[in-house]
Specification:
Blueprint: E1 14-24, H1 30-40, H2 51-77, H3 84-96, E2 104-113, H4 117-126, E3 129-136, H5 143-157, E4 165-168, H6 176-192, E5 199-205, H7 209-213, H8 218-233, E6 238-242, H9 255-261, E7 269-273, H10 282-285, H11 287-298, E8 303-307, H12 314-327
Parallel strand pairs: 1-2, 1-3, 3-4, 5-6, 5-7, 7-8
Helix pairs in contact: 1-2, 6-8, 6-12, 9-11
């Protein structure tokens, strides 16, 4: 039966996939970084302190001093096509376009900053996507990453009269496809080095110790990823946690302290990989590749290599395609 002549246009039914990553400022300048940090650090999933206590601290000392320092760090890694995290996530979405059939639209968004999750959900719905797979690209589940990305999407859905059906990508920290992709990537990069590392350091983003005590599975997920990667490579790995912030006790051992201690243990050559990140960003390119090298060499280390994330490499895209195809079964 044909619709009435005055009926609004109805786009063909489609399925949407929304890749979601953490976020990034719009530019490597203090003003943009301040705006980004204000949104990021105001998220109660990220800083679990009552807002009445936290906001004066955030709006005072932190947002008056940290943006300039962070802007300098972003400037060291900024690319011609923008923020590394945004550029790579955009490339991942482009690399997956058409991978699931002509009726599946792949888009991308950032939890903080642009493009915003709400805007991209609206854009997918406008294209006829009545079913959408939310895909937070965090292998290890953490309330401060996976949960808050889903929270933001659900908040946008709460404003819609006609909501699309929703699925969410589960954490894939021990998925064979993920471990196999990491193995292939690390082996290829190690083979391309002009030295043989004495140790392979596996660095994950840190979280406060209390998150583990409150039931967040992140620490366990990271440890299992490290253990499975070491087994796949047939070698021991050293697991550590980076990006400490504030005075609270954080998950350990700390990456910077570990790098500084390794030369004293006879480790003169080291390679570092960050499998908790699906795309390279300031935490890998500046904190690990630049400052991590400085810490290691200052302590007497001789050779240092940072091994890039899976990013939009062929093996990385194949892994994402396999994971997403599984979650799209029955839809696409």
């Amino acid at each position: 039966m044909l619709p009435p002549a005055d009926h609004p246009a109805i786009p063909p039914r489609k399925v949407g996939v929304l890749l979601i990553n953490l976020g990034t400022p719009d530019g490597p300048d203090a003003k943009s970084v301040k705006r980004y940090l204000a949104e990021f650090l105001s998220d109660s999933r990220v800083v679990e302190i009552p807002q009445l206590l936290w906001q004066p601290i955030l709006r005072g000392a932190i947002l008056t001093t940290r943006p300039k320092k962070s802007a300098h760090a972003y400037g060291l890694v900024w690319r011609e096509d923008g923020s590394p995290l945004a550029a790579i996530t955009r490339a991942q979405a482009a690399g997956l376009a058409g991978a699931f059939g002509s009726n599946v639209v792949v888009d991308w968004a950032m939890r903080y900053g642009n493009p915003a999750i709400a805007d991209r959900l609206a854009a997918l719905k406008a294209q006829g996507c009545e079913r959408i797979l939310l895909a937070p690209l965090y292998p290890q589940y953490c309330a401060a990453t996976t949960a808050t990305a889903n929270d933001k999407a659900f908040a946008a859905l709460a404003e819609m009269r006609w909501q699309p059906a929703i699925r969410t990508l589960p954490p894939y920290y021990d998925d064979p496809a993920y471990i196999d992709a990491l193995k292939a990537s690390v082996e290829a990069q190690l083979a391309a080095l002009d030295f043989t590392p004495d140790a392979l350091l596996v660095s994950f983003h840190g979280m406060p110790q209390r998150t583990l005590e409150l039931g967040d599975p992140y620490h366990c997920h990271c440890q299992k990823t490290g253990r499975l990667l070491g087994a796949a490579l047939g070698r021991e790995v050293v697991v550590a946690f980076q990006s400490r912030f504030g005075r609270a006790k954080w998950l350990g051992p700390a990456t910077d302290e570990t790098l500084s201690a390794l030369p004293g243990k006879g480790v003169r050559r080291v390679a570092v990989v960050a499998p908790g990140f699906s795309a390279d960003c300031i935490e890998t390119l500046e904190e690990l590749a630049i400052r991590g090298r400085e810490s290691f060499e200052a302590a007497g280390g001789e050779r240092f290599a940072y091994l890039p994330c899976l990013n939009d490499s062929a093996v990385g895209l194949a892994m994402l395609q396999a994971l997403l195809a599984r979650e799209l079964m029955g839809w696409a």
